[in-house]
Structures are given as C-alpha cells and as structure tokens.
Amino acid sequence: MAPSGTRIKRGCQRVLYWIPVLFIAVIVAWSYYAYVLQLCIESIEDTGEKVVYLLVYHVVFIMFVWAYWQTIFTRPMNPLKEFHLSYSDKELLEREDRGESQQEILRRIAKDLPIYTRTNSGAIRFCDRCQLLKPDRCHHCSVCDKCILKMDHHCPWVNNCVGFSNYKFFMLFLLYSLLYCLFITATDLKYFIKFWLNGLPDTQAKFHILFLFFSASMFSVSLASLFIYHCWLVCKNRSTLEAVRAPVFRHGTDKSGFSLGCSKNFRQVFGDEVKYWPVPVFSSLGDGCSFPTCLVNLDPEQPPSPIGPIPTTKSAAEGRQFPSKPLRESQSRLLTTTPSWSDNEGAADKDKKGASNPIMIIEHEA
Question: Which pLDDT band, with edges at 50, 70 and 90, does 232 fall under?
C-alpha cells in the first residue's frame, strides 16, 4: 500500500476509535439534560428536595467527568531509554542468526536492568517492533503500537491504553460513574413509579424520567461488576493481562509474584497520601519500570518448581539509577530500598509467617 493510502487508513482508524467515546459523551450529555432540567426543575415540586438533588448530583457529575477526562487524555507511559537497545546492540543483534546467541546478547544487556520476568520459555522479554527489553509488567499494545508500562488493557470506551500512568484515573472513573448511575436510579425511582401510576403531568418530561431510570439502572449493573473485578485486581496487585496469563519469573510462573498484601497493593496504585485517593491526580508509587516482588508461598495451583539458594548480591534495581522523576518522596518509595516495604505490618506478618514456616523469596538479579 502506498504511503498516502496508509496515512488515509490510519486517519480513518483514529476517527473510528473515537466513536465509543463520542457515544458515552452523548449519553452523559442527555442524562444531564434529563436529570437537571426535566426531572429536577420541571418535575420536582419540593424546593428543598430539588436543591439537595442538584447539589449532590453536580458534585458526583464533576468528579465523574474529571476522572473520565483524565483517563482519556493521560498519555500512557513508555519504557525509559535505558531499556531501549543502543545502535551497536541493534547491529550486533541483527548479525546473529541463532536464537540462543541473540538471547545471550539480551541477557548481557538485561543484567544491568531491574528485569525479573521472562517469557514462558524462560527467555528475556524483547519487543521487536519497539526494539527494547520489556520492563516487568510492560506489554506491547497493537492498537497504540507502543510498549505500555504496567499495561492493563486497551479500553475502547476511553480510546486509550489503561496502564501505569492512568490506572488510578480508570478506577476513579469506574467508581464515580457507578455512583453517578446509582444516584440517578435512587432519586428517579419515586418518579418512575409515579409514571406507571399516572401521577406525572402529561409532558415530555415523563418519557425522559422513564428512559433515565432504565439507562441508569442498566449501566449500574455493568459498572458494578467491572468495578468489583478491578477492586479485586488492585487488592491482588494484578493487571487484567496478568489475571489471564500469570507472569513468569526465573523460578517459574507465579500469579501473585507482585502482591505485597492488600494494603500495600492499594497504596501502590493510589499512593500514600489519603487526601489524594479520591481525586483524579497522579499519586501512584514508583516509575512504572520496576516493581518490588515479594513471592511468598508458591501458589499450590501452580506446578512446583525448584528454588535455588537466594543470592546475596545487591539487586540490579537497587544499583541502577534511573533519571529523576517529578515524584514526591512518598511516591518514589518503591524504588528506594526494599525495607521501605517492611513497616510495622511487615513485622507482624513476619511473626505469623514464622509460625507457619513459609518460604519468603525476594527477587534479586544474579
């Protein structure tokens, strides 16, 4: 296909990708008109009820739109330049025909990087299209045609990849959209019943009230199931991709390899500062390129794999200095030292684990 034809095709695809977002925008705009004008202003006669409904509605509406906007327009983060192959490494890799020789080159490059996950065959995870070594939890998105840090999934309803940079926004979008639909359903219920009892004036408002109730209640069911599922993923410290296919470490597959306990898993996404949890501003911990791994008790559902002695050498993640990021101290705690995760909770957990004699493995790069 000619370059001009390719550009036209890509332009058409970009337009088509925005159709689901436009659909949501139209639904939200209509719901605003139906709720504010047709229900609150036209149908509700009690002034106090009307004022309370409008105040609460607009608070939830603003938070919902803000979170949705952030999810859509926050650009996914890509791997740092340290993970990209240098020009000389690219040439060296292209000259090698055998897969094992190429893996030797990739292993040599990876030894200086905080990379602990592997492919199913135990090889270094390498992206041919982006020409880089994939950081842990990083995947290539075929729609964006980029490697996305801590990729969860590509969501057509936001026309964006959900990953490290906007996963918190996505969670808040699910939360506030669910609250938005539940609030409309609850406050519209009385007037929905009046519709069937012929207690509403014979105006166009009653049809808006009818469809508003049906649409809000149906969206509530789907949003509730999706939100509960992603809450479970946050508590387990898994992405959607990792829930489908567990990450592979050097000792074998472990679907809970990145889990640090429910509280720490939650803080990894929402941050340490409670005041930022409900607000769609970035507060996640780390830089998205490296994650602490604390593998406790290999999953009994997984086949057993031999575990060698724990090396005492310093991990590559600790020895590697990445470019400084505009993060607060609490946000970069994941990248400083491992003991930052060994707080009072960790001490209590350690006492409990000592009684049940589990195996604690902290991943180190050999």
Answer: very high
> What does DSSP assign to residue 235?
H
Q: Which amino acid is at 96?
A: E
Cα–Cα distance, 317 to 339 (Å, whole number): 14
Matching residue, tokens 């409900």: 278
Amino acid identity, position 25: A
**Whether 147 is catalytic:** no
Instruction: State the pLDDT at residue 312.
Output: 32
How far apart are the C-alpha atoms of 91 and 105, rounded to whole Å? 11
C-alpha to C-alpha distance for 192 and 185, rounded to whole angstroms: 9
Rounded Cα distance between 40 and 53, Å, is 7
Please report, in angstroms and rounded to a whole number, the separation of the first and last CA atoms in the chain: 47
How far apart CA 109 and CA 316 sit, in angstroms, is: 12
Tokens standing for residue 133: 């070594």
Closest residue by Cα to residue 336 from 263, 284, 275, 286: 286
Kindly provide the b/e burial profile for residues 259-282, where b requires at least 16 CB atoms within 10 angstroms of the residue's own CB. Answer: bbbeebbbbbbbbeeeebbeebeb
> What value does the mean pLDDT take over residues 341-347?
41
Asked if residue 258 lies in contact with residue 199, where contact means CB atoms within 8 angstroms, the answer is no
Q: How far apart are CA 111 and CA 354, in angstroms?
A: 32
Q: What share of the chain is helix, strand, coil (3-state, %, to 5)?
A: 50, 10, 40
> Angle CA(284)–CA(17)–CA(3) in degrees, nearest 5?
110
Residue 162 has φ and ψ, to the nearest 5°, of -95, 120
Spot the catalytic one: 40, 127, 130, 155: 155
- Average pLDDT (144-168) is 96
8 A C-beta contact, residue 359 and residue 307: yes
Mean pLDDT over 336-355 rounds to 42
